Amino acid sequence: MNTSEKLHELGIELPQVAAPVAAYVPAVKVGNQVWTSGQLPFVDGQLPVTGQVGAEVDEETAAKMARLAALNALAAIDAVAGIDQVAHVVKVVGFVSSAPDFGGQPAVINGASNLIGEIFGEDGHHARSAVGVAELPLDSPVEVEIIVELS
Fold first, then answer.
1. Helices in 26-129 by DSSP H: which ranges?
2. Which residues pair with 88 in a beta bridge?
3. Which InterPro entries does the annotation name (predicted)?
4. Chain centroid to CA 88: how far?
């Protein structure tokens, strides 16, 4: 089963590629890899939730936002290489806008990692960083980058 079929089976539709909010492109293909820019959890061009995790945003909601950001990253990969060309997810980097006393960044970024596991199975096993930051663009609670290897 290819990735498009797996997405269909899971009832997941990749969104339109989110428009960049500054001077960059959503993803770049280099050799047999695609590197995405940091993707925010946009839905139809809007952030459904804003604020710091551990203050205005709870951990469960933030994990859902990380899942949305990962979907946007996969859409960017699809646009430059085709989602069915992904052989392996190499790395996920997640940034969490965190209140000073919040330490649950790994659980938040599990929202992205779990989605990748659902879609890619063993080919989705990836290295990862989950980093707490003071603020993200547009007051987003999360930002996610993905690096993939192509077949």
1. 59-81, 105-120
2. 149
3. Endoribo_LPSP/chorism_mut-like (IPR013813), RutC-like_sf (IPR035959)
4. 15
Show the tokens assigned to 85.
Answer: 């060309």
Question: N- to C-terminal Cα distance for the chain?
Answer: 15
Query: Structure tokens of 140?
Result: 């987003």
* Nearest-angstrom CA–CA distance, 39 and 68: 9
Q: Is 139 left (phi over 0), alpha (psi -120 to 50) or beta?
A: left
106, two tokens: 């790994």
Q: What is the pLDDT along the chain (151 residues), one digit of tens a residue?
A: 899 999 999 999 999 998 887 899 999 999 999 999 999 999 999 999 999 999 999 999 999 999 999 999 999 999 999 999 999 999 999 999 999 999 999 999 999 999 999 999 999 999 999 999 999 999 999 999 999 999 9
Tokens at residue 123, please? 């080919």
Our CA dihedral for 80, 126, 91, 133, rounded to 10 degrees, sits at 130
Supply the Cα-derived Rg of the chain in whole angstroms: 14
Q: Which residue has the tokens 């993200």?
A: 136
For the record, the structure tokens of 54 come out as 């551990």
Q: β-strand 86-97 against 127-133: which pairing, if any?
A: parallel
